[in-house]
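As noted in the main text, all predictions were made from sequence alone. Below is one such record, for RNA exonuclease 4.
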Amino acid sequence: MYSLSSDNNVYVPSCNWRRLQKSLHILGEIRKKTKKRIIKTDLNKFNSIPRNNNEIKCPFSISKQVFCKQINESKKNTELSKKDSNYQQKTRKGKYIALDCEMVQVGPSNKKDRVLARISIVNYYGNVIFDTFVKPKERVIDYKTHINGITQADLKNAPSFEEVQSKVADLLKNRILVGHSLKNDLDVLLLSHPKKDIRDTSKFKTFKAYSKGKSPALKKLAKEILNMTIQNDVHSSIEDARAAMLLYRRYKHEMDHA
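Prediction:
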């Protein structure tokens, strides 16, 4: 199909091959084969070219040290996020709350009328979600400071009973109420709560075994069951509420099905 030309020592197509090209509509000259030209780049010259200081650098071109630092920071952020989540869970109100009240004596000296002077409410984890003194309407005969630590100064600028009662009523809604001798606390608050949602540690049968079948003192239960000392000097409504919640948590399944 090709013949050698003696003039320029190149191969030229034969007549038959030219006819075949025309029949297939292939026109134009046949390209001579040429060697590929390899361009060598001088890296030194390339690096010497001045660059624009404002050019955009690739964000992925970072050193190993920077990369490791970013990974460590990412891990720390994840750990902090988990801690924040746990903190939020433990500080929110939740389904279970425990309360305890401290009272002062009012009215004639020959009667033992008591009114609310302080109330503390903690959540399932013992974190305080509400704690306030309450200003009595009646004249206080005995602050019972030796028992509850409350003084006249504590109640002077305290919120009114109605204000506190309203806030407590809102907190009690649709929640399990835990406490010790809760009837006394609810009576002084002038509030009620569904019986099915009350967990009273003074009435739990298992706890009565520590006081020969009678209603046990919270201080005794805390010492015997929790190995915890409370009411050492004066009563603290926060401390008592926490102790009641810990007792409930220890026997939660039994108390829920009692």
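The domain at 117-134+159-256 is CATH 3.30.420.10 (Nucleotidyltransferase; domain 5). The chain is about 40% helix and 15% strand. These features were considered when defining construct boundaries for the mutagenesis experiments described in Section 2.9.
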